[in-house]
Structure to design on (503 residues):
């Protein structure tokens, strides 16, 4: 029988938020233990700096031009889930001729290999704000229907699904998935208390940076751990290997961890973040525009940092609870465990919070840890650059499953040397569209509409102060990197998913 696979997947978590990655204030003993037992990747890079495109790359093994999810709000193509626009009469008549039914996901492939596939939490493969007439199953309007939680259809290859939608305190709402329904049924008094607290804080500046009245034992991170343990205890088919994806909504803003957790972090020292005044050589216009739009006060940055570390510690508790259950059921040794995120967070770098369509190292550099199953020998640390598009082929290599056709990522254990990951940070507005490529040392970025360039030596300059593209002695490196990134982008562009024409 194949080994089990459990993936802990967080939202908007920086590489440096973990103890095993150098954070002296992190309380992450369970995640750190996975790094000690397995392999910690020090240069793991997201294929995009925002949620949906990066998650699509993780789930499909394709770069952004391959799967077509170039921005938030664009669904990962699947004919049976609302991507086929039933509201457009022209599309209804001609849509999909010659277009595959889906972009296969990790869960699709593993289901074909005989796995039971379980999704708990946030996948974010569809636009949450879509009108319910489209038929997306993870949009809020769809969850207004009381019957929604009883839907047992397969979802992006997952046979068993328990959703958590939204961030911060929003998941407690009725239309935000299974967790919200559970809170309304089991703890309506907490839902009401949260609602009143949010209303009383609505006019306060930056009300999304504060402690929550949802206690840690009822928080969605804890609920997800409980649901994972419940599945293992009460629903597991022991004749089949398990693939379980646990998607935490945290530590994504709003920065509102439970008060009983957050109070433990109020006295930690906030580390020195990248400073605006130390920038040498211009950053691109898009990068500077993002910093201006995301500017935050020192007070709010410091509080957001502390609250983020509190959220990460609660996630670590949840990870520990699932690990304990796997050990109790004698499954731990036969299970590959992955801990990672979709992208990072500015969290004070250059006096900014949140994220945007720009390849700042704070946003692209994310944690990636693999604990192998017993009997599998892997390195303790890998410093070669790796994309989250490389996760699927790397995992399949560990499982002895043949790499699917058309996958663009590589098996990092077998093909990692010379790997050059790509990040494609497009936006829907049509400007400041940038593509980056990485080697073991540099990040090179090319802006397609302005021809601006950035080149950073991320080993010597991890805060990305000095744009070497402005220096004549680096012209040859820039020219070579630009040629490579454009070739890779064109090579990865499939352009068949979700497209149709009127002639």
């Amino acid at each position: 029988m194949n080994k089990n696979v459990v993936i802990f997947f967080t939202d908007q978590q920086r590489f440096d938020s973990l103890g095993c990655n150098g954070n002296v204030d992190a309380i992450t003993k369970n995640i750190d233990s996975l790094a000690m037992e397995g392999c910690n990747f020090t240069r793991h890079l997201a294929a995009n700096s925002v949620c949906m495109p990066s998650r699509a790359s993780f789930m499909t093994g394709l770069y952004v031009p391959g799967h077509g999810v170039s921005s938030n709000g664009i669904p990962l193509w699947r004919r049976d889930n609302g991507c086929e626009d039933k509201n457009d009469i022209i599309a209804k008549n001609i849509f999909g001729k010659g277009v595959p039914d889906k972009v296969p996901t990790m869960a699709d492939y593993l289901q074909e290999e005989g796995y039971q596939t379980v999704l708990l939490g946030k996948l974010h493969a569809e636009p949450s704000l879509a009108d319910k007439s489209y038929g997306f199953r993870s949009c809020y309007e769809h969850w207004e229907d009381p019957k929604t939680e009883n839907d047992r259809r397969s979802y992006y290859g997952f046979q068993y699904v328990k959703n958590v939608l939204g961030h911060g305190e929003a998941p407690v709402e009725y239309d935000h998935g299974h967790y919200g329904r559970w809170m309304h049924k089991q703890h309506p008094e907490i839902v009401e208390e949260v609602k009143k607290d949010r209303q009383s804080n609505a006019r306060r500046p930056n009300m999304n940076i504060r402690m929550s009245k949802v206690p840690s034992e009822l928080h969605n991170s804890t609920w997800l751990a409980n649901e994972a343990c419940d599945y293992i205890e009460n629903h597991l088919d022991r004749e089949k290997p398990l693939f379980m994806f646990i998607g935490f909504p945290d530590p994504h803003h709003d920065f509102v961890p439970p008060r009983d957790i957050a109070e433990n972090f109020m006295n930690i020292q906030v580390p020195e973040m990248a400073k605006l005044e130390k920038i040498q050589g211009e950053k691109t216009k898009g990068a500077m525009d993002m910093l201006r739009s995301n500017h935050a006060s020192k007070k709010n940055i410091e509080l957001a940092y502390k609250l983020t570390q509190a959220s990460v510690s609660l996630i670590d508790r949840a990870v520990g609870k699932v690990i304990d259950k796997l050990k109790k059921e004698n499954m731990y040794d036969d299970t590959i465990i992955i801990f990672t995120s979709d992208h990072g967070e500015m969290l004070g770098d250059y006096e900014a919070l949140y994220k945007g369509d720009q390849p700042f190292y704070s946003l692209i550099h994310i944690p990636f840890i693999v604990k192998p199953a017993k009997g599998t020998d892997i390195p303790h640390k890998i410093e070669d650059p790796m994309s989250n598009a490389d996760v699927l082929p790397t995992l399949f290599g560990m499982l002895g499953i043949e790499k699917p056709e058309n996958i663009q990522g590589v098996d990092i254990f077998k093909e990692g040397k010379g790997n050059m990951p790509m990040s494609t940070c497009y936006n829907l507005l049509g400007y400041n569209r940038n593509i980056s490529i990485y080697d073991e040392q540099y990040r090179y970025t090319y802006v397609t509409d302005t021809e601006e360039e950035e080149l950073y030596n991320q080993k010597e300059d991890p805060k990305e102060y000095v744009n070497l593209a402005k220096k004549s002695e680096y012209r040859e490196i820039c020219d070579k990197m630009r040629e490579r990134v454009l070739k890779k982008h064109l090579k990865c562009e499939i352009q068949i998913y979700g497209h149709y024409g009127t002639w």
In short: The chain has a mean pLDDT of 93. The longest helix spans residues 298-328. The radius of gyration is 22 Å. Residues 59 and 106 are 5 Å apart (CA to CA).
